Amino acid sequence: MGPYAEAYAARRMAAEAAVGLIPSGSRIAMGLGVSQPPALLRALARRAEAGQVGEISLYYLLAFANAAPLLRSDLRHRVRPVSLFHGGLERALDREAGSHDLPVVDFIPTAFSQAPHVLSRQVDVDVLLTTVAPMDAEGCFSLGTNTDYALAVSQSARQVILEVNPAMPRTLGNCRIPLDRVTALVENPVPLLEVPPAKIRENDRAIGRLIAGLVEDGACLQMGIGALPDAVCAALHDRRHMGIHTELMTPGLAELMRRGAVDNSRKAIHAGRTVFTFAMGDRALYDFLDGNPDCEAQPVDYVNNPAVIARNDTVVSVNATLEVDLQGACNSECLAGWQYSAAGGQLDFVRGASASTGGKSIIACHSTAAGGTASRIVPRLTGPVTTPRNDVQYVATEFGVVNLRGLTLAERARALIGIAHPDFREGLERAAHAAARGC
């Protein structure tokens, strides 16, 4: 540690002592997904259980198992969870609350690109809790899998409490926290949380092949979460000279780099390097990212800025949705009246890809849901508009791909009915006249 050894030692302490520095009433941001620090969160939960801390608000995106000790209905009176992107834990808590009670987890609607501003300036977070890689020779800690909003919060929070884990990859880019910004350090050498891939079904593969047909050599890729984007990656192994500029780095994208399909040689910015803001996957992905000079982690307000995205040519953005109405608007975040996920970076990349020279924005979904009993192409959305009809370009299901750009409302309805499941087309045709009137 050289010249930083004394300062490091002064900040190193047990998890209980570190969270003991957090006063009641604090606004805390914890890292996203993989970077959520298990030792710190368990210690904070124990303090809440013992009544030693209260009136805490916990802000975050996409909680995983490490956050489960704090995301509990019985702690709601002491720790108020506030999500900017829901996942399985939040959905389970909503089911636990039941239809007649308020959700256990509060929700802030926002684009992913705005999360750093929301947390560091609007909410004005007091404390950052996140996992980092061990300190480097320059006295800095790499944020590893999760630069996203953590870098901005580390620069504005009054306390920065880090869980140092050698299993966290040391990623390169604009993703480091200097020791002089750190309040406390907790060393916890445990395996990093791994996210198993979603099972790819045959209709995923069918959609993946259709979308792959739109992707040419030299395209710059952004892929979202789930089986559909994974299926697209699997269908692109024979491409060459592609690039990656994506919010999420996945095993599927890493495999494209390993196979030589991605070399980033045709990118206008960050040429030769894959750019991402957070990563989720298996140990092989984390090892691939560790010290890899071909990959750069950057803050999400940079990565997801449509103007930055558009600086690369032939950007292809692939994201999933829950439902598409007959005018082309997409609801990608609410299901059956409950918050299911969030807007994330979908609209950021839809607009960035659309502004890219030769770019293509693709929204994909299975044609049906609920075991085939419901159509994902619907007359009217049942939730908020995540991506407006004005922005949607390509829509893909296992029955085809349509480009809505330049189509009238009536033409859009016919095109979307054509890629709906055959069992629902007749009903959609009966409803299509309402979409043609434009309201």
From TrEMBL:
GO MF annotation terms: acetate CoA-transferase activity
InterPro entries: AcetylCoA_hyd_C, AcetylCoA_hyd_C_sf, ActCoA_hydro, ActCoA_hydro_N, NagB/RpiA_transferase-like
Stated name of the protein: Itaconate CoA-transferase
Keyword Nucleotidyltransferase tagged: no
Assigned protein family: Belongs to the acetyl-CoA hydrolase/transferase family.
Gene3D superfamilies: 4-hydroxybutyrate coenzyme like domains (3.30.750.70), Acetyl-CoA hydrolase/transferase C-terminal domain (3.40.1080.20), Glutaconate Coenzyme A-transferase (3.40.1080.10)
Keywords, in A-Z order: Transferase
Alphabetical list of Pfam families matching this protein: AcetylCoA_hyd_C (PF13336), AcetylCoA_hydro (PF02550)
Span of domain Acetyl-CoA hydrolase/transferase N-terminal: 5-192
GO biological process terms, semicolon-separated: acetate metabolic process
Positions of the Acetyl-CoA hydrolase/transferase C-terminal domain: 281-432
PANTHER family noted in UniProt: ACETYL-COA HYDROLASE, ACETYL-COA HYDROLASE-RELATED
